[in-house]
Structures are given as structure tokens and as C-alpha cells.
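Recall that a protein's primary structure is simply its ordered list of amino acids. Everything else, from secondary elements to tertiary packing, is in principle encoded there. The following example makes that idea concrete.
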Amino acid sequence: MSKPKIKSQDDSLTLQNEVADPNMATEFPENGARISLSGLRRTIFNRSLVILGLTLLSFQAGSSIILTFVVYYLGGSLKIDFTVAGFIGSLNLIIALLFSPIFGRVYDRTKKAKRILIISGLASAFSIWGMSVPSIFVIIPSMIVSAIFLSAGFVIVYAEAKRTSGIQHLNPQYQTLAVSFVNGISLFGAFWIPVLFSLAVDHFGFSFAWLLGGLIVLIFVLPAFKLK
């Protein structure tokens, strides 16, 4: 029966040095990969990521407006039963759930983020404008179209942010940072949208507020034209 091989002290020191060696980071990224200060600066001041964050603000604005106000708009302004209004409002999330994988697949095949984002932003803006028409036969189709293309915006922006950072750093930590940074820009910019929409409703009515909402979506999708 063979005796088990016992590692010498030199072998143990060699193993420890190999694990601690920063050059091993590419082979064992979970042990050695770190976010450097220079990499952090390249991420935060990356032009493409800032543009993606501003573009995502467009889709954040459209989504927050619809999710926050559509049920009250249908039930309070158009006098639709609130149970029915709630069901109609939930269609926005159901449709987004169905179409997000489809747009993800389209992006994987084409990698044409700029074109998809511009088309989706324009379609979302026009469909939100359609919700200013006080008719359920216009509002429901408009909301369905907006839900489809707003979902595209979220999927494409996050995927493109990850790809952009991956090309530059080839490091999973930077990809996560890039997505978080882009999302942070959009959330910081979108928190005031419901307040502005509420003020517009209070002073000018829902029709004007929906027109204003569509205009905001249109304005913030314009940076997508600067994408490569």
C-alpha cells in the first residue's frame, strides 16, 4: 500500500505564492481580480456609458409615468371601473415580460444597439402621446405599443453597457460596475418625472401631461444618436 504524499514546507510556500501572485488574476478572477482606480475613472467618464445612461433615462421616464398614473387616469379621469383599470395597467408589465427576451435575442443577433434604441424611443414617445386621447380604444393600443418598446430600451441599454465595459476591461467586475453606473444615471434623472407629471396634471389636465411625458421620452432618447 503506497503512502500518501506529504507536501513539504517549500511546496506549501510555493502554492501560497502562486495564489497570491497578481499575475494569476486572469486565471483565477474570483481570487485576484480587483477594480483599480484608473479603471473606475475610465468607467465613470466613459462617453458611451454616459450616453447609455441618459438614453435609459428616456425609458425610465416613460415606464414610471405609465406605471404611476395610468390606473388613476383610467379610473379617475375616464371613470372606468378601478378593477378594470388595474387589469389594464398590469398589461404594461405582462407585455414587457413577454417581449424583453425577444429584444434580447434581436440584440444578440444584430448588436445594432443604436438603431434599436432610437426606434424604440421614438415609438415609445409617439405611443405615450397617443394616451392623451381620452378614448379607451386609443389608450389601450397606445399603452401596449409603449410597453413593447419601453421593454426593449431596458434590455438593450443594459446589454450594451456590459458589452462596452467588457471590450475595454475584459473583467467581470467592470461589467457589473458599468451596468450599475448606467442604471444610476437613469434613476437619478428619473425621480423627478412623476413630480413634473403631477404638476402638469394639476394645472393643465391629463391630456397635456401625457403630451409632456412623450416629449420627455423623446428628448432623452436623442443622445442615442451619438452612439457608435
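The domain at 45-223 is CATH 1.20.1250.20 (Growth Hormone; Chain: A;). The first helix runs from residue 9 to 20.
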